[in-house]
Automatic annotation (TrEMBL), chain A:
<dbReference type="Pfam" id="PF01425">
    <property type="entry name" value="Amidase"/>
</dbReference>
<feature type="domain" description="Amidase">
    <location>
        <begin position="23"/>
        <end position="464"/>
    </location>
</feature>
<dbReference type="GO" id="GO:0050567">
    <property type="term" value="F:glutaminyl-tRNA synthase (glutamine-hydrolyzing) activity"/>
</dbReference>
<keyword id="KW-0648">Protein biosynthesis</keyword>
<comment type="function">
    <text>Allows the formation of correctly charged Gln-tRNA(Gln) through the transamidation of misacylated Glu-tRNA(Gln) in organisms which lack glutaminyl-tRNA synthetase. The reaction takes place in the presence of glutamine and ATP through an activated gamma-phospho-Glu-tRNA(Gln).</text>
</comment>
<feature type="active site" description="Charge relay system">
    <location>
        <position position="151"/>
    </location>
</feature>
<dbReference type="GO" id="GO:0005524">
    <property type="term" value="F:ATP binding"/>
</dbReference>
<dbReference type="InterPro" id="IPR004412">
    <property type="entry name" value="GatA"/>
</dbReference>
<dbReference type="InterPro" id="IPR020556">
    <property type="entry name" value="Amidase_CS"/>
</dbReference>
UniProtKB/TrEMBL annotation, chain B:
<dbReference type="InterPro" id="IPR014746">
    <property type="entry name" value="Gln_synth/guanido_kin_cat_dom"/>
</dbReference>
<dbReference type="InterPro" id="IPR004413">
    <property type="entry name" value="GatB"/>
</dbReference>
<dbReference type="Pfam" id="PF02934">
    <property type="entry name" value="GatB_N"/>
</dbReference>
<dbReference type="InterPro" id="IPR018027">
    <property type="entry name" value="Asn/Gln_amidotransferase"/>
</dbReference>
<protein>
    <recommendedName>
        <fullName>Aspartyl/glutamyl-tRNA(Asn/Gln) amidotransferase subunit B</fullName>
        <ecNumber>6.3.5.-</ecNumber>
    </recommendedName>
</protein>
<keyword id="KW-0547">Nucleotide-binding</keyword>
<keyword id="KW-0436">Ligase</keyword>
<dbReference type="GO" id="GO:0050567">
    <property type="term" value="F:glutaminyl-tRNA synthase (glutamine-hydrolyzing) activity"/>
</dbReference>
<keyword id="KW-0808">Transferase</keyword>
Length: 482, 489
């Protein structure tokens, strides 16, 4: 059961081979034993999970169960969950119990999922390794001395180590896809606006998008179907009919044109990653797809553009954490400015402070045009590059991350090296496109490699279909860490 | 050099609270006076993860304003974040509009002064933009701590920015009053200045006539026209005195203290915030379609300027009368209803009654014209009876007082009922008037002699006696004619 797919769990629940309460207990017990070593969860809500499981069993008994009723799930701690700590991996919110549910959380509650707990993450989703968590780093189940990637590291670890069958995450510059790649699971970030951001603690509003983790593309499709949908409370949420992302999973790949951007295959990619990616592409060709060379000439500008826009938005988004109404307030302070200064100095970690400072700087009078406006121009150029590429191909493929998981502490002192680990994922957020990472075999030391598929706007179904057909023909996604 | 060598330059920024039922970015109520923080939603208190959703009612009011002042209503405008820390600013930024405001340009014609000295001038507007209000910090009653009330946080405001087109405190006040009447006229703001629904900031500088603009100081948060006038007057004399003493003006924000009548420095330019404006990524650009503008245009009431012009052109009123009668929507509506019930031919006497006896009586009773006990139809009935000589103007005043006291009932025929009941109908029967005249002449031989000796005043005294003897009901013109004939004059 621990390794079963969502489809298999659905069958087992409906056939009464296992109850939702038993299934939840199975995963909760696994969390109890494995989480101390992996640190995937910040909060485990056994009581809440069992209550939700009992409700799910009632629905199953009443014959009103949906595809996810009774399926255990973990939520990244960036999503507000009513009555449950929502810390965002920060000391600043280490005492914040949300009075309301995020839209994504309420949709998944309505679907009957059973929330096991809240997963570890880089503080305020700022990071690529999960080392920037107030609660300590989550660890990669393939090698506990290594990072799981970030910022949604806890959710990726939970799914990879089978502490939860599925999990939610958020992806601002690669925070779903990169940890999925580094932990050997499948993760998808949909088109910007497909999932509501309401109740998702904002990092960089114009880039943040909720995403799904699962062992397979099929599991991700089931989860994304339930969590996507228009929400009038989010002005950037897109008013479109709800979609069933599982519908076209089995569509044959014959004729699929896969674009290979030369910029994603240049120097900088580790040899073991390159070998794994080439092998996956060969398999795709075997399945009937063709590959075509494309170019994204401005993709190299994605990281500098991102590290202007994201900190700029973050510097403003995080202003509300001032110790006045909720969150951390310094125990002792003098005047108002001192209260702000001490509360924020104590409540935020180093990387969050760095990005607030960078963001404040680039928005300052006299620098705004040179940084923020210039970055927005680059953003448009990058989006145009993708549109030009999609004239020649249906999906774009390449590595998700230039390397496999690195050792905890290896890049902690070098923010730029850390930022470069998102070199293939960031452009996708800047353009607002959907992206998926699926297991692509293993590199040196038996560490997972991920392949990234990028689609045109609203091509989530196409990406999931391609990954699913690949997973039907291969078994990388079924491998589990020891 | 003397004070006459200086020219005053004033521009105003007015924050008009838009009268939407809910806030500009949340569904919380905007009603005034609730218990602290009872009208603050998750969005208003800026919980983690919440997002703003624009209230289209606020946009619609901005469009109305743009159309009313002949401005460009931007087909695409942008909400921006104005970043600064303050405890009553929950998000750490205010959502406002910066580079691309919803209303651009436009102008307002104002009438300054009264009577012969009155003149008209035009004040150009720079822009008007939508933004949210902050909450309130409460510094009393918390034993050394401050309280925060976020009920007002997120209340929609239209910030209306004028060009520095005003040259005196009188012009500034006339502009503020005209603007105040306009926002109420087009029903976008209740104009309640005590509750802060209409707040003025004045940018004031002085310069040598024709010279370059002087350095300005901004007087913040003036919530009455009287304070606006006093604050500007004080500021102007302070700036002139400072300059004439060889000093210089530093750009600053100042506050007006109504108790001392003085302005004092709040912060200097050096202390000014860098607000780090940038487009709010949580809100899409505000797109206003031509169809939306056309629909709002179709729902616009006749504006004061157009109404005033119509009163002059079609009713033959003087510019002064027309200005007075369009000073507020309520006065204009009342007057329009009076002439609708009387007749266009009686426009001038109707105007006199509305601006004269009615205004004085309302003023005495401290009543708004909308609450007048004398309805427009009743006043029209009175004016008609004077016009058709049923009663004289003097008796009319008596009838008006009776109308005010509700004596004729609630109907439109109240004046007729009063005239009938009190027997006030004018005497026009020549025989009856002649009889009274003869009695009066017989009893006032002294006056008759004085008149014959050339004292014209004595004639007026005789007229008065006749009117008195008729208890005011004799037709004054007839009395005149008969008296002259009798006296052989």
């Amino acid at each position: 059961m621990i390794n079963a797919s969502v489809t298999a769990l659905r069958r087992a629940l409906d056939a009464r081979e296992i109850s939702a309460v038993e299934l939840a207990t199975l995963f909760l017990d696994r969390i109890d034993s494995a989480n101390p070593g992996l640190n995937a969860f910040i909060t485990v809500d056994r009581e809440g999970a069992l209550a939700a499981a009992r409700a799910a069993d009632a629905r199953i008994a009443a014959g009103t169960a949906g595809p996810l009723t009774g399926i255990p799930i973990a939520h990244k701690d960036v999503f507000c969950t009513e009555g449950v700590l929502t810390s965002c991996g920060s000391k600043m919110l280490a005492n914040f119990v949300s009075p309301y549910d995020a839209h994504v959380v309420s949709l998944l509650k309505e679907a009957g999922t059973v929330m096991l707990g809240k997963t570890n993450m880089d503080e305020f989703a700022m990071g690529s390794s999960n080392e920037n968590s107030h609660y300590g780093p989550a660890r990669n189940p393939w090698d506990a001395t290594r990072v799981p990637g970030g910022s949604s590291g806890g959710s990726a670890v939970a799914v990879a180590a089978r502490l939860a069958p599925i999990a939610t995450g958020t992806d601002t510059g690669g925070s779903v896809r990169q940890p999925a790649a580094l932990t050997g699971v499948t993760g998808i970030k949909p088109t910007y606006g497909v999932c509501s951001r309401y109740g998702m603690v904002a990092y960089a509003s114009s880039l943040d998008q909720a995403g799904a983790f699962g062992a397979s593309a099929a599991d991700c499709a089931a989860l994304l179907t339930a969590m996507a949908g228009f929400d009038p409370r989010d002005s950037t949420s897109l008013e479109r009919p709800r979609e069933d992302y599982t519908r076209d999973l089995d569509h044959p790949l014959a004729g699929l044109r896969i674009g290979l951007p030369k910029e994603f295959f240049g120097p900088g990619m580790a040899d073991d990653v390159r070998a794994a990616i080439e092998a996956v592409l060969a398999e795709y060709r075997k399945l009937g797809a063709t590959t075509v060379d494309v170019s994204l000439p401005n993709a190299r500008l994605a990281i500098p553009a991102y590290y202007v826009i994201a900190p700029a938005e973050a510097s403003s988004n995080l202003s509300r954490f001032d110790g006045v109404r909720y969150g951390h307030r310094a125990a002792e302070y003098g005047d108002l400015a001192d209260m702000y200064g001490k509360s924020r100095a104590q409540g935020f970690g180093a990387e969050v402070k760095r990005r607030i400072l960078v963001g404040t700087y680039v928005l300052s009078h006299g620098y705004y045009d040179a940084y923020y406006l210039k970055a927005q121009k680059l953003r448009r150029l990058i989006a145009q590059d993708f549109q030009a590429a999609f004239a020649r191909c249906d999906v774009i493929a390449g590595p998700t991350s230039p390397t496999t998981a690195w050792a905890i502490g290896e890049k902690s002192d070098d923010p730029v090296q850390m930022y470069l680990s998102d070199i293939y994922t960031i452009a996708v957020n800047l353009a607002g496109l959907p992206g998926l990472s699926h297991p692509a075999g293993f590199g040196a030391g038996g560490l997972p490699v991920g392949l990234q598929l990028i689609g045109d706007y609203f091509a989530e179904g196409r990406l999931l279909n391609a990954a699913h057909r690949y997973q039907q023909a291969t078994d990388w996604h079924t491998r589990r860490p020891a | 050099m003397s004070r006459t060598d200086w020219e005053v330059v004033i521009g105003l920024e007015v924050h008009a609270q838009l009268n939407t039922a809910s806030k500009i970015f949340s569904g919380a109520s905007t009603a005034f006076g609730a218990e602290p923080n009872r009208q603050a939603s998750a969005v208003d208190i800026a919980l983690p993860g919440v997002l703003p959703v624009l209230n289209r009612g606020a946009v619609e009011r901005a469009i109305r304003f743009g159309l009313a002042i002949g401005a460009h209503v931007a087909p695409r405008s942008v909400f921006a974040r104005k970043n600064y820390f303050y405890p009553d600013l929950p998000k750490g930024y205010q959502i406002s509009q910066f580079e691309l405001p919803v209303v651009q340009g436009g102008a307002i014609t104002i009438t300054v002064g009264e009577g012969d000295k009155a003149y008209e001038t035009m004040v150009n507007l720079t822009r008007a933009h939508l933004e949210e209000d902050a909450g309130k910090s409460l510094h009393d009653d918390f034993h050394g701590m401050s309280g925060i009330d976020l009920n007002r946080a997120g209340t929609p405001l239209l910030e209306i920015v004028s060009e520095p087109d005003m040259r005196s405190s009188a012009e500034a006040v006339a502009y503020a009053r005209t603007l105040h009447a306009l926002v109420r006229w087009i029903a976008i703001c209740d104009g309640n200045m005590q509750e802060g629904s209409f707040r003025c900031d004045a940018n004031v500088s002085v310069r040598r006539p024709g010279g370059p603009l002087g350095t300005r100081r901004e007087i913040k948060n003036l919530n009455s026209f009287r304070f606006l006038q006093q604050a500007i007057d004080y500021e102007v004399q302070w700036q002139i005195a400072t300059l004439e003493d060889g000093g210089s003006i530093q750009q600053a924000t100042v506050l007006f203290d109504p108790d001392t009548g003085e302005t004092r420095m709040m912060r200097s330019k050096e202390d000014a915030h860098d607000y780090r404006y940038f487009p709010d990524p949580d809100l899409l650009p505000l797109v206003i379609s031509p169809e939306w503008i056309a629909r709002v245009q179709g729902e616009m009431p006749e504006l004061p300027g157009a109404m005033k012009a119509r009163f002059v052109a079609e009713l033959g009123l003087s510019a002064y009368d027309a200005t007075t009668l369009t000073a507020s929507k309520e006065i204009a509506a009342y007057y329009q209803a009076v002439i609708d019930a009387a007749s266009v031919a009686l426009a001038k006497p109707c105007a006199n009654w509305v601006m004269g006896d009615l205004a004085a009586r309302l003023n005495k009773a401290e009543l708004d014209i909308a609450d007048s006990p004398v309805s427009p139809a009743q006043l029209a009935g009175l004016v008609r009876r004077i016009a058709d000589n049923t009663i004289s103007n003097n008796i009319g005043k008596k009838v008006f007082e009776a109308l005010w006291n509700g004596e004729g009932g609630a109907g439109a025929d109240a004046a007729d009922r009063i005239i009938e009941a009190q027997g006030l109908k004018q005497v026009t029967d020549s025989g009856a008037i002649e009889a009274i005249v003869d009695e009066v002449l017989a009893a006032n031989q002294k006056s008759v002699e004085e008149f014959r000796a050339g004292k014209e005043k004595a004639f007026n005294a005789l007229v008065g006696q006749v009117m008195k003897a008729s208890r005011g009901k004799a037709n004054p013109a007839q009395v005149n004619d008969i008296l002259r004939a009798r006296l052989g004059g």
